[in-house]
């Protein structure tokens, strides 16, 4: 069941002088969803978030939140809480006063505000810190305070503008899981801007992949990873092999000396140049012994280099009949089992069912 829409953006465009920062943004966000705007620097994700917040006025287009047209509303009359990369806490106010900031004009009693501040500091894992000052807290703690402050008025929308990028790697990973858990508990519709693919894949219900002021794809983390809609998305999210090939007709493609069948969304006339995309894990090593050597996707290659990534490794192979090197991923157990080492010859089969085929003329992504 689709959640009811919380926010609908239609035809959003932003032009500065002669420069178009956003063009034709259409997007609907469901109530309770956690959505990430993901894309390279300058693609327009912060501009889009600021337009949603009313901190920037769109040049064209409409925004509807909870059935109300907010296109021209000033920020103070919109219903959201926001967290910036830079924490943006008031240094001369205590943590308690920072969190209470949005509540003091709300008409609640001092006691009610104190209780709400206590509850929020509990929720973000900082109980008892209301009398401290921001300078006495770490970056991660300050960002939790900023989160508590953003949530204080129980907004309908939580906007997070790269909230984790100023933090070190360990704190960043911990805090992103905490934010996600808190978001689930509260059910607050959340939009987070990030340029970190792993971060978006690990927390989002849906990812909006942006490039050059446009949306390339909107999908679940699994969809944008497994079924990238464009070469840009395939390149930008995760590691990818790009293979130059030519269509042979009937869903077959020739890549060097390999003939590969691929399920393509678009039929390509014979001779059409295409690019095939394949993830490094999309290969089989087991059960190849009885196979006819002419089986499509069966390969023989030599390991040229191995990059250790922690739980697994990325090997670069020189493959018979292929001009370009191929990246293959192995778990550490597979490394042992198949004796993968530099100089080893491996027999493997490409998962041709996972090949994505794009016109070679489609714009290249930023890898
Ligand atoms: P980053 O990850 O680097 O913050 P971003 O995807 O959030 O990038 P934006 O900050 O939204 O990108 O900027 C989009 C484009 O608009 C950029 O080319 C930027 O230089 C331009 N831009 C942003 N703000 C302004 C402004 N006030 N005046 C003119 N151009 C601007």
Question: Topology, please?
Answer:
Blueprint: E1 5-16, E2 19-30, E3 34-38, H1 45-53, E4 60-65, E5 68-69, E6 80-83, H2 95-100, H3 110-123, H4 139-151, E7 157-161, H5 169-186, E8 189-194, H6 197-203, E9 206-211, E10 214-219, H7 221-226, H8 231-236, E11 241-249, E12 252-255, E13 258-261, E14 273-278, E15 283-284, E16 298-308, E17 312-319, E18 326-331, H9 332-337, E19 345-350, E20 356-359
Helix pairs in contact: 3-4
Protein name: 2-aminoethylphosphonate ABC transporter ATP-binding protein
Domain ABC transporter: 7-237
Pfam family, one: ABC_tran
Q: What share of the residues does DSSP label as strand, in percent? A: 25-35%
Task: Count the DSSP helices.
Answer: 9
- Looking at CATH, the homologous superfamily of the largest domain is P-loop containing nucleotide triphosphate hydrolases
* Poorly predicted tracts of residues: none
Order of helices and strands: EEEHEEEHHHEHEHEEHHEEEEEEEEHEE
